Amino acid sequence: MNQSCESPRQCSLSTLIYQRPHGDANDWLVSLTENHPGFAKIVDLASVGKVAGFLTSQAKSVLSIAIAAILSLDESNVMMMDPLKIGLFGFGFMGKTHALNVKNNPNAQLSAVFSVEKDRLDIEQLGAKFYDDWHEMIAAEIFDAVIIATPTFTHAEIGLAAINKGWHVFLEKPMERTLGKCQLLNEAAEKRQILLGMGHVLRFDDEYLAIKEKIASGAIGIPKMVRCTRRGPPPGWSTWFFDEEKSGTVILDLTIHDLDYICWLAGTAPKHVTASASSILLGNNNMFGISHVVLDFEASNGIELGFAEASWAATASYPFSTSIEVAGTDGMISSQVPGKHPIEIYSDKSREAMNVFSKDGYANEIDDFIIAIVEGRPPKVSGADGMLAVKVCLAALESAKSHETFDLEGFT
Ligand SMILES: NC(=O)c1ccc[n+]([C@@H]2O[C@H](COP(=O)([O-])OP(=O)(O)OC[C@H]3O[C@@H](n4cnc5c(N)ncnc54)[C@H](O)[C@@H]3O)[C@@H](O)[C@H]2O)c1
C-alpha cells in the first residue's frame, strides 16, 4: 500500500485521505503507522473504521482531526475529506431549500432524496437518487447523516429509523407534534451517540444573531422585554398544515420560531406560559390561525417578558413579515422584515442604524450541522432545545383553549 508522503509534515491531509485505497481500513492505518511513526499514537482509531469494515466519512473526519492535531497542520485541511453522504427526507417547501444548501456545501454530497413521484426529475437533476418510499430508502442506502423535512407528525418515525442506522439527524422544526415523541428522539440519539440538530432558523439568521450580540454587548442595558411578530398567508402548499393533529396549528408551526428565539435570548425556559388564539378557516377546518403568546421569565438574564404574535390571516398578496423589538434598561433595539430596514438601536444618547447583509439562515444551519459532524461536536441547536420549544408551544396551545396560565415546569 503506497502512501507517497516524504514525511508526515509534508504530507497534506487530502493526500492521506484521498489516497486511501478502498479496502481494509486497518491495513491502511497499519501502513500509515509504519511509514510515519507519529501515526502510532492514533492507531487505536482503527477500531472506528473496523466497525464497518471500511472508513466511513465520519470515521475519516475523526481521524483527520487527530492527524491534523499531531502534525499541527492548518485546520482548513481537516475539511479536505470525502464529502459526507446526506440523505434528505422530504422535498417540499423546506426540503427543496435544504437540498440546494447541501449541494452548495463542499463537505456534503446529496446522495438520495425521498419525496412523491412528481419530484423525481428535479431530484435526479440534482444528482441524487430518488425514492418515493422512505422505508425503502432507509433499507437501501448508507448515509453519514440525514435531513428530515417531512410533515411534523412524521419526524419521530423517520428520525428514529435513521438514528437506529447510526446516522446523524437534522430535524426541521417543530421537533415533533408531541412531547413524548421528542423524548423518544432525544433518548435514542443519546443512546446511539448520534448528533441531533434542529432547524430553529432564527438562531442562524445573521440579523437575529446580530441583535443577540448587540444586547450582550450592553447596548440597551439590561434587556427586559422582547416582542416578536410573524405574519403571512396560510401555508396553502400542503393540506396537512390545516389539521391540528398533524401541524399543531399556527402556534407549533409558526410562532415556535419566535418562542424558541425569546427563550434563547432569555437563556432559560419561561416560568409561565399564557396564550390567546383565534380560529380562522384554514383549508376545510376552523383552527387557530392567529395567536398571541406571553412568556413570563423568573430566572433569566434580565428578560422578564416575552410576547409573540403569529398570524396566518393574510391574503396571498400580503408579504411574509416579521418584527422584533427588545426593550432594556438603557435603550431599545428593533428590526422589521420585509423592507430594507436596518436594525435600529436607540439609547438615551444616540440612535444607531446597523445594516446586516446576511447569508441565508437556512444555509447557515446546514453548514453548522455538517461542520458539527466533521468536528465531532454537538450542533448549535440541540434536541433538548427542540423539545423545550415544543413544550412551550404545547403549553400555549392548551392555554389558548382553556384560558389558563400554565406553569411550564409541571406541564406534561
Ligand atoms: N424552518 C422553517 O422556516 C420552515 C418553513 C416551512 C416548513 N417548515 C417545517 O418543515 C417541515 C416540512 O414542511 P414543508 O413545508 O416542507 O412541507 P411540504 O408539505 O411542502 O413537504 C413535505 C414533504 O414530505 C413528504 N410527505 C408528505 N406526507 C408525508 C408522510 N405522511 N410521511 C412522510 N413524508 C411525507 C412530501 O412528499 C414532501 O416531500 C415541517 O415540519 C414544517 O413545520 C419549516
Number of helices: 14
Tell me, rounded to a whole number, the average pLDDT: 85
Compute the separation of the termini in Å: 58 Å
Let me know the CATH homologous superfamily of the largest domain: Dihydrodipicolinate Reductase, domain 2
What is the CATH T-level topology of the largest domain? Dihydrodipicolinate Reductase, domain 2
**Heterogens:** nicotinamide-adenine-dinucleotide
CATH class group of the largest domain? Alpha Beta
Can you describe what's shown?
The chain is built from 14 helices and 15 strands. With 412 residues, the chain is of the alpha/beta class. It has helices at 13-18, 25-35, 46-50, 57-71, 93-103, 120-125, 134-140, 155-164, 179-192, 206-216, 244-247, 249-266, 361-375, 383-402, and strands at residues 84-89, 108-114, 129-131, 145-148, 168-172, 196-199, 223-231, 272-282, 285-296, 305-311, 321-328, 331-337, 343-347, 351-354, 406-407. It is globular and about 65 Å long. The strands form 2 sheets. A 9-stranded mixed sheet has the order 14-13-12-11-7-10-9-8-15. It has 3 domains: 8-79, no CATH class; 84-199, Rossmann fold; 203-360 and 382-410, Dihydrodipicolinate Reductase, domain 2. It starts with 12 loop residues before the first helix and ends in a 5-residue tail after the last strand. The structure holds nicotinamide-adenine-dinucleotide. Nicotinamide-adenine-dinucleotide binds next to helix 5.
